[in-house]
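Format notes (please read before filing issues)

Several people have asked whether sequences and structure tokens are stored in separate files. They are not. Every record keeps both together, in the order shown below: the sequence lines, then the token lines. Line labels are part of the format and must not be stripped during preprocessing.
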Amino acid sequence: MSEYIKVLLIEDNPADSDLIEDILSGVEDQVFEFVTAGRLSVALELLADRGIDIILCDLSLPDSHGLETFLAVRDKARNQPIIVLSGLSDETVALKAVRQGAQDYLVKGRVGSNLLVRSIRYAIERNRMLVELDGFAHTVSHDLKGPLTSIRIASETLERVLENPEDARDKVTELLRIMTSNVDKSSRLIADLLILAESGQRPTELQDVYILDTVQTVLADLGGELSKKGVAVELGEDLGTVRANPTHIYQVFLNLIANAIKHNDSERPLIVVSCGGRDKHGRNLYRVRDNGSGIAADVIGTIFVPFIKGEAGGTGIGLSIVEKIVKLYGGWIRAANDEGACFDFALADYPE
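Then the structure lines:
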């Protein structure tokens, strides 16, 4: 298992396409997977694959030309970053594309390995930050505003009820229940936001964390939910150890297992936690898998982006916390469907 970047290369010139693939295939510390489209119509169909991480887009195609090409791809791509591949004759158009939302533009024939890889990595990170910021603004304005509005309505109603206190006991009890419930909801969201903010910070109190012990603690804490849904759990015999902050590792497995419980729709739900040994960099390789119907195609590409919510609702923060912690420990994480939702990830000892 290794971290990879999936590239949609929209380019009708085979020589240019082969050159870009050769450049990226020669990068030692990054694996790239390519999907190629020589026409806009084909590219738009391929964009249904939400596993695409970055789009490299030539503006001059057999069935589209200029800024219209970019706009069509942008509108279909939704949250996927786009780098425009420009010829010398259309740099002006490429700049217009950047103003319209492209992350960068590169002039074909002047692109070296370092420049291309750096541009791709920066584009993915900048785009992710923009999506996170947009999601954060929506969450604060909607998910916090909703409970606060309910509390205000309940308090105003309570004030009116107390003007005529006779037979008001039941109404007061219900209004207080509504207020308490919405305060709790707001508190949970704020707590999640704080965990997200802290998850990428340098860990303190490092120790050897025995992953099996951590997972068993998580299972004990989630015992009520496991029992309620009748979820069986299988654990690998040896889950290894990681030099880490115990709370960080607990958060990783808590969120992944809680996610597997919540979204497993199998009649006989099962969660499997296993360790695949170490990779060549000395990182432990883990897998958390369930046997449900898997991750929806329209969600899988943004599943680690905070505040992006699926049909089940929630804050959309849990898996983002996992990704931030995993990367803090020099690892990577990938979501896929393999007879159910499957999360593969790597964890390394934090350097002291």
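For reference, the curators noted about this record: Residues 4-111 form a domain with the Rossmann fold fold (CATH 3.40.50.2300). The CA atoms of residues 1 and 222 lie 29 Å apart.
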